Amino acid sequence: MPTVRRTWAPRGQTPVIRHWDRRDRLSAISAITVSPRRQHVGLYLHLYPDNLTNVEVATFLRDLLRHMRGHLILIWDRGPIHHGRAITDLCRRHPRLHLVELPSYAPELNPDEGV
User: Is 80 left (phi over 0), alpha (psi -120 to 50) or beta?
Assistant: First the structure.
């Protein structure tokens, strides 16, 4: 989508914003895991053909919980897809999942951004 959403134009002359979009999308969600004794590092990744919603995030977390034993502390940013009914329901069903949010805009604190 074009980054310009509003523009000025003379009265009665509707502006035309030209943009090019092939609608090719590839969305990724990933997690870096570190063992409790810091001996093993893992990478979990899901790819999706469209934009992600909280439903896909909940599915990813459910799969992550299947692979990991014990308590899982998840540190993530405050993205809008990280909130919603699917996430709330998942946290209620799995008390071993602990969610910790990073400050509002701090990609330098998120090691997963490099993935």
Answer: alpha
- CATH number for 57: 3.30.420.10
Domain for residue 76, yes or no? yes
Selected residue with higher pLDDT from 59 and 1: 59
- In a domain, residue 14? The reply is no
Spatial separation of the C-alpha atoms in residues 109 and 102, rounded to whole Å: 8
- Other C-beta atoms lying within 10 Å of the C-beta of residue 57: 21
Q: Is residue 53 part of a domain?
A: yes
**Integer Cα distance of 56 and 78 in angstroms:** 16
Output the pTM of the full model: 0.72
Contact 110, 77 (CB under 8 A): yes
Domain extent, residue 42, equals 32-114
SS3 of residue 1 by DSSP: coil
Mode of pairing for the β-strands spanning 41-48 and 27-34? antiparallel
Q: What is the mean pLDDT of residues 53-81?
A: 91
